[in-house]
Amino acid sequence: EPERILGKLRIGTCESYVISILPPVIMEFSEICPHVEISTHTALVPDLFQMLRQNDIDILFFMDQRIYFPEWVKVSEQPEKIFFVASSNSVLAGKKHISIERLLQEPLYLTEKGISYRYAMEQSLAAKGYELHPFLEVGNTDVITRFLLKNKGISFLPEYVVRDYLKDGQLTVLDT
């Protein structure tokens, strides 16, 4: 019976998941297994893998390219959309086919360099000769969205981070 399960569950993940994805999952889990103590541990993906190998965490929840390890059990895998986003009041909001040159004229708020989707985007732009010069780099996507909501620039973020702001019209996906 799940309600009789005791112990600790240590979840390794990124900070943006702790803010946006995990709260409802943890709430549901705590209703099913109310006596399990849950802790989250945030780090970059390579560090999370090391924590898992050292038994410092029990579950790894992350975003990256497909990675396979035969000794581990993969429970779920799904694609995630990632966009350039800005305030709905941005001068770029609603414009079609925004060039990278124009996009990069705006203040850029980005996650840290080691984050998988940022790295992939930077590699793609570098292959075309573009170099990024972010106005701000910060690991917390909630901080980034606060700047965007104040119409202070643009960012490159996963859909799960900005979904609610897109739905209520505060942020918009830029057509690049």
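[next item in queue]
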Amino acid sequence: MIKSVSKKEMAEIDRKVPEKYCITISRMMENAGYQIADFIRQNIDEEKVTFYAGKGNNGGDALVAARRLHLWDHEVEVVLATEDLDGIRKEELEILENLGVEINLETSEKEYSVAVEGLIGYNLKGNPRSPFDSMISEINEYETVVSIDIASGLEPDTGDRSDTCVRPDYSVTLAASFKGMDEDNSGEIWITDIGVTPEAYEEFRFTGDFFEERSLVKKGLWRVSVLE
């Protein structure tokens, strides 16, 4: 049986990996962005992609992925939920601006067919508010939608959708999938290696050797050993 994590367990992983194993958030964000961009390059036959980014870590992952695809000669647009970014997210935005990537606020000005969203993440409480609700509605109009880690508006433990929720074709989860995710609410689920150590996985009673052969694994092929 595939081992998935709860919101509480994922929060502990996010806390312990930088604190105990000295793998920084910025390093994991770089790994996540690379993996998301590589997933799109390998699985989606489209050279033009719009990225929707919130102010949290998933938004930072989206910005890194946009940079990577831009460097791989894709046409990318970034749509921000807010310009009030800080830390590594602000740095990533400045890099994209220096590279000449088009940046828009709250709504897209392109007519691309692929959207990648990192708006909210797994800490949502209640229904998405403005501008997230209108951005989610816009995202759902795309032909192909990829959610980073978890669809914005989806409750990670129960799988319940909020009133406004992204309906992705693919979800590229970071390090592990959530208990409430399934193909109905998350599309095709892929799990990607962002540098979480096997020791950290073992603290949550399952092994991390499923990335030995590849760093991006479709959930149906994800073989996990649950520790006794």
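[queue empty]
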